[in-house]
Amino acid sequence: MAVVCVVGSKESGKTRVAEALIGALVRRGLKVSALKKSQSAASLDPAARDSARLKAAGAALSCCAGPQGSCLFSDPVD
Questions:
Q1: pTM for the whole thing?
Q2: Which residues pair with residue 74 across a beta bridge?
Q3: Exposure winner among 20, 36, 42, 48, fewest CB in 10 A?
Q4: Sheet containing 33-37, strands listed edge to edge, beginning at the edge strand earlier in sequence
Q5: 15-73, pLDDT tens digit by residue?
Q6: CA 74: distance to chain centroid?
Q7: Cβ(25)–Cβ(33) below 8 Å
Q8: Cα separation of 10 and 35, whole Å?
Q9: Closest Cα to residue 35, out of 60, 65, 1, 73?
């Protein structure tokens, strides 16, 4: 297992870089998960979070962890 961290200042394009990286890794046949640390409360509305963008980029699951808790977005389980 490998771990890659994308770090930067607020509004510096971290999510955009992570989306591109996830897409490239998935195209190579790798299974990717994403964890987003947030300073605000985790939202259960996936459209309102960067974690939804990371999931849409191809992550098998995406988690947003914040001071009030966390939420996990994954594909439905059969």
A1: 0.81
A2: 61
A3: 48
A4: 33-37, 61-66, 69-74
A5: 999 999 999 999 999 999 999 887 766 555 556 578 888 999 999 998 888 888 887 88
A6: 11
A7: no
A8: 16
A9: 65
